[in-house]
Amino acid sequence: GSRDPAVLITRVEAGNPPDVSTLPNPGAMVEFARSGKLVDLSTFMDVDTLMSGYSSTWIDLGTYKGKLHGVFLSADLKSLVWYNPKAFAAAGYTVPTTWEEMIALSDKMVADGKTPWSIGLESGGASGWAGTDWIEDIMLRTVEPEVYDLWVSHGISWVDDRVQRAFELFGQIALNEKYVYGGPNAILTINFGVSPDALFTTPPNAYMHKQATFIKSFILNSFPNLVPGEDFDFFPFPPIDPQYGTPALGAADMFAMFNDTPDARAFMEYIVSSEAQEIWVGELGKLSA
């Protein structure tokens, strides 16, 4: 299947869906299930066995009206800022623990003639999701959870003052010519997968990069000799309004089946196996679902 949601929707509507596809979120699964496009996985998968290896939360998220339509292969923690510990130490920088400290550190880097951030939002037909992650993390740190839930379910407008504040805080970094490697316009064309590379040049072209746990595999693909925890590490995306603390934003890789074929069944059964989980966790830096 395609990772491009627009391509997937077009194929499904044309009656030519892939046998199996990833889905961007449980909401997309519900839409396809509601229209009768998905195979009920419980017709050939043992749900009791799945329950023994998966949290009930994952099973619930993959279920619509009592039928299992989606399974999760792996998860990612998104509320992370990656950095080069050796570059930090050489410059005398310390890891920030609040938004104010992170902005102050960024200003210090600029004063030292350095560029604080590397940001890349390009991702083909899915471009922009990396920016969405910023907004979501900021929202979680500036509003009540109930307000966040209203926002993601279209209960409040994108021009609501609370949402606008999140964009303004993101803009404090992303729109600052001195903060961003290549400048604000470049972040639209820099691919998300290569954007952390700027942290590992000599001297570094940037010092911080916000991205999920999966970016470990991209870093090691570009720089296979780097040692996690020594040459690159991360710190939690810091709190903004203290009363909301440091919540964690997560995401997961969801698979659904559109055509009931022997190969599709075999694939779906494989991806929930411990063998598949070990590959995603051990080699790609994912978290096990």
From TrEMBL:
Pfam families referenced in this protein's UniProt entry, alphabetically: SBP_bac_1
InterPro entries: Bact_solute-bd_prot1 (IPR050490), SBP (IPR006059)
UniProt keyword list: Transport
Gene3D superfamilies, alphabetized: Periplasmic binding protein-like II
PANTHER family: ARABINOSE-BINDING PROTEIN-RELATED, OSMOPROTECTIVE COMPOUNDS-BINDING PROTEIN GGTB
Membership in a protein family: Belongs to the bacterial solute-binding protein 1 family.
Protein name, as recorded: ABC transporter substrate-binding protein
